[in-house]
Amino acid sequence: MTTIPDEVDVLIVGAGISGIGAARWVRTEHPGKSIAILEARNTAGGTWDLFRYPGIRSDSDLHTFGYDFKPWTDRQAIADAPRILDYLHETIDENDLAPLVRYAHRVVAAAWSSDTARWTVDVEHTDTGTRSQISARWIFCGSGYYDYDAGFAPEFAGTKTFRGEIVHPQHWPEDLDYTGKRVVVIGSGATAVTLLPAMAEQAAHVTMLQRTPTYILPLPREDAIANTLKKVFGTERGYALTRHKNVAQQRVLFELCQRFPSVARRVIRKINESQLPEDYPVDTHFNPPYNPWDQRLCVVPDADLFRVIRSGKASIVTDRVDTFTENGIRTVGGEGLEADIVVTATGLNIKIIGGIELSVDGEPVSLPDTVVYRGMMLSGVPNFALAIGYTNASWTLKIGLLCEYFCKLLAHMDSHGYDSVWAVADPDMPTRPLLDFGAGYVQRALDTLPKQGAEEPWVMSMSYYADRKLFRGDVADDNVRFARAGERVRSTVG
User: Fold this and answer.
1) CA 230, chain centre distance (Å)
2) Angle, vertex CA 179, rays to CA 160 and CA 337, nearest 5
3) Burial status of residue 480 (CB atoms within 10 A of its CB: 0-12, 13-18, 19 or more)
4) What is the 3-state secondary structure (H, E, C) of 454-491?
5) Strand pairing of 182-186 and 341-344?
6) H/E segment holding residue 239
7) How far apart are CA 125 and CA 491, in angstroms?
8) Which of 26, 87, 312, 356 has the fewest CB atoms within 10 Å of its CB?
9) What is the pTM of this model?
10) What pLDDT score does 226 carry?
């Protein structure tokens, strides 16, 4: 087992897609810096290793969800989790990152000292329950924004009377046999629309019980243009061209939905109607009460969701749970849904920066009182970066830009002899919630999250093109302060 030194230059939290990418960036751009990656679980891969439910896959194309420095070579553009995991492990091996990772190490707290310009990080060893400390100049938090320990599970009446099995997708039993069973999936998000066609192949019948419809868009599992470009121009050039093409497609789709929501709604409805049986109640089950991209669109590869509905293997009920019964669920509308297994695909719980308790010079950091600078630094918190990707496009697009900027920031500090940097926020600056996103898991957590401002560089941008300009601009501006060890942090201007 690799032993992490007591002191490192850059401590990366999480060995998922963000942490792996950050480690590769730092190792490539700053080969002289010492790096350690702390992963709370026993394996790398983050989301793609944690979730084990049937059919788990991306809902973004891998030509943009993958790293810019490593071409995605598989024919699948909307890829399943095993293929994504292979890709991540290849990245680890190709960049010799494995010796940097320490598994079963959960970061629980980090205390900054301006005197030493270092973090003292408290680490829990999840396999033994013991604790240790590590000193770091920088913390890069690549743990995403949701709780890996528990998903969102609302309380339903009557669950104790149900004679079947209740499963949450985040904790999928390895030995769950649903062959020939009646299954009800509660939910309508990306997980639910993945489970429905995946389980319908073996189950007797699968019903998706949704409180509210979701916008669903069928896309080819394989990108024919991408595969042609790679064949004609070679892997690297073809991948780069595809990446540019798909970034533009994602942005155009989002902008059209935002500017012309009524038109977008009609187009999506027409596509859905064409995939469903004749006289199907489209407006009941596929007509959300909100505009497209107020919440994330759900992608279904090769229209697999619609295929199993047409076949009769799966169905959708739009209603709310009244109570569980011995044999299934009764809805508010009075419909009885028989079930042997109920899957509560009811969403995630947000846990920003992995729940790490931060303090600066002995003062606890209250995250809701901070403002995010350039989408990656917390006001008043030195030498700390967090990685949050896009909600309206591929997550990793933003992470790549953020890592590029992070490495440029390190170079600037080295060349000028600085030990620390932090963002300073005007206390009179108007703020708003960090994420402009209507998803339930986001809305439930807004009071626990940092804020964003109204203008750059304090906006949590969801535009790749705007971020590309922002991150590739000058490192130093009036919103950050650079210092040497011994200089105290001031969190605000004035």
Assistant:
1) 28
2) 45
3) middle
4) CCCCCCCCCCHHHHHHHHCCCCCCCCEEEECCCCCCCC
5) parallel
6) helix 235-259
7) 32
8) 312
9) 0.93
10) 94
Contact between 209 and 186 under an 8 Å Cβ cutoff? The reply is yes
Whether the link from the prior residue into 213 is cis, omega within 30° of 0, is no
Residue with tokens 């920031």: 409
Q: Which amino acid is residue 425, in one-letter code?
A: A
Here the tokens at position 291 are 């505009």
Mean pLDDT of 284-295: 89
pLDDT for 294 equals 80
Secondary structure (3-state) at 352: helix
3-class SS at 225?
Answer: helix
DSSP single-letter state for residue 489:
P
Distance separating the N- and C-terminal Cα atoms of the chain: 49
Task: Determine whether 129 is exposed, middle or buried from the number of CB atoms within 10 Å of its CB (0-12, 13-18, 19+).
Answer: exposed
pLDDT at position 297 is 86
User: Which amino acid is it at 288?
Assistant: P
Whether the CB-CB separation of 343 and 351 falls below 8 Å is answered with no
Are 423 and 380 contacting, i.e. CB atoms less than 8 angstroms apart?
A: yes
In order of their start, the domains of the chain are: 7-149+349-483 (3.50.50.60), 159-344 (3.50.50.60)
Rounded to whole angstroms, how far apart are CA atoms 401 and 388? 11
The 10s digit of each residue's pLDDT in 309-331 is: 999 999 999 999 999 999 999 99
Contact 215, 372 (CB under 8 A): no
